[in-house]
Amino acid sequence: MSLAVPEETRSLPWRYGHQRSGSGWAHPHFRPAGLTAILDRLWEAVRTAVVFDTFLAVLVCSVAFGALPQDSESPTEVVRATVTEVLRILKDPALKDPAKLMPRRRMLEVVIATRFDYAEMSKRALAAYWTPLTNEQRAEFVNLFKAFLSDRYAGKIEGYSGEQVVYLGERLEGQFAEVRTKLLSGKVEIPMDYRLMNQAGRWYAYDIIADGVSLVKNYRSQFEKIIRSDSYEELVQRLRDRTVVEEKKAKQ
């Protein structure tokens, strides 16, 4: 299986967003869905297919907390350390005061941002539309996409109610890895896989797969629809407008 394949047509499944079907792998399809790394509330959004309004939650985070994964750690250890720190912040009694809402969210934003590669996520979400962009356009999109994810979904993690994460194993191939987990919420078990890329000896996540549904594929579908029906400029303007709205809310 060749690794030297153009970005939009690479065929190594678990590296490039293909989804599992039974015991094998299925070709990716664009389909709206919702996703979160730890919250049952966001999972309900997945089931009801509320896409743009309720998709992500734990992709937002980080102040230095002294427990960030070290370069020598495995992909599983990186995911475990990040999720553990997110849960620690959510469980901290000192941060449950409503007055601590924004400081708590900023702490979460720092934690996740430390180990999620928003540039890679943006590139994969735009797919072929990324190629013709200038460096300035790419930088702007990455910042807007990150702000969109952070501002839109930070509040979702406030619904954490004791869900547990079980680590099932990892799969490695070259600089790519997939860490398999499952989220336990009552009697419900939700498969939750993290896809990571090794860059200069450090592992960074670029996608989350919830019950076979890819975060990146979800946004690729939504972005493609907007670009095809309107334009790339329209997509960027919508992200700009949403960022302005969320910034005003945060100041209230």
Description:
This protein is α+β, with helices and mostly antiparallel strands. The chain has a domain of 176 residues: Roll (Nuclear Transport Factor 2, Chain: A), CATH 3.10.450. The protein has seven helices and seven strands, in the order ββαααααβββββαα. The strands form two sheets. A five-stranded antiparallel β-sheet has the order 3-4-5-6-7. A two-stranded antiparallel ribbon has the order 1-2. Helix 4 packs across helix 5, helix 4 packs across helix 6 and helix 5 packs across helix 7. The longest helix is centred in the last third of the chain and has 20 residues. The radius of gyration is 17 Å and the shape is globular. The N terminus is likely disordered.
Features:
two-stranded antiparallel ribbon; 252 residues; alpha+beta; single chain; disordered N terminus; globular; 19% strand; Nuclear Transport Factor 2, Chain: A
